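Input sequence (391 aa), recorded before submission:
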Amino acid sequence: MDFGESPQLKMIREGVRDIARQYGPVYWREKDATKTFPAEFWEAMGKNGWTGALVPEEYGGSGLGAMEMAVIVEEVVAGGAGGTAGILLIANLCFGTMSILHHGNEEQKRKYLPMMGDGKSVFAMALTEPNAGSNALETQTLATRNGDGWLLNGSKVFITNIERAPAVLILCRTKRFEEVKRRTEGMSNFLLENPAQVKGVQINAIDKLGLNALQTNQVFFQDVRLEQHHLVGKEGDGWRQILDVLNPERIVGTAVAIGLGNLAIETAVNYAKERKLFGRQIGANQGLAFPLAEAKAELEAARALNYKAAWLFDQGQPCAEEVNMAKYVATEACWRACDWAVQTHGGYGYTRDYDVERYLREARLGRIAPVTSQMALNYISEHVLGLPRSY
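Predicted structure, token format:
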């Protein structure tokens, strides 16, 4: 067991954090307030190879693994970019790269994988539905056979970046729910090109609490034409394909929480050293110091577990237990870190002149997506502890 860090990982940490610091809190505060996509940041990340980190070199990427992916995400978030940058990286590293690399045909790989690293494109995935939520097996969006292709009808919700994506991965049913013997059957994935320009696709922006530099949408599909070249892998194999995306997605989501939690703690500590009240630094008060110390300890524990999950993934070994435990610990600790960062700033923490209020808004999403804290605990209860299934 070796806890040492390779020279490559150290180089990645330094390189990514250097970029993140070029786009500090003021940059992200302005993007969030004006709901403007961070194009300059994304282009800089692409030029340095980070947006296509998992893309093999033969397709124009960096050819890195899940461990490097976790470090990249953690460092760019902790370096000042916050949760918005993390969501962008999830879109390209997981939704785009992993799904196409593992299940796409050669034509799809040649077409889309180079886009993952160009610093201009950002991918999207349409999975969640208004009436399904965490239970994606109840997907109702349906692609029915029509000649040599399909017609797609239905709706998806909480779909980020689809309005600017060169392609979106859509999970839908190619057999109705009542026609299959097992709930996991009859689901397929399609890659729809330039969805915002496709006839029959309606995209409605959702006003939300945080991460406002990225547009999140509800999407409606009405008789959208899909051809054979849009199909990813085999028809009916969609659920198995999606499962291959979920573990790396949660590794990245955990890295976002770790980075954001550490960013909040660093901001709070700096303020607590400078701010004086009753004749001394407020950081000397255990009422503030202890909660920040507890969150730091929990984030470090989550980091170790997340790195183990990433290592297992890179070795081709099962990692779902580690992924769910790391995700739960990290997102809960991140929330506490951001909450106490606001508390440390007192009244100033509630204003938009200080960035801790934005960190708190961003941290809240981690307890909901990519999997809720309760669903992570459900997995741990059933698959780690062996307790009866609760849902």
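Checked by second reader. The CA atoms of residues 57 and 63 lie 5 Å apart.
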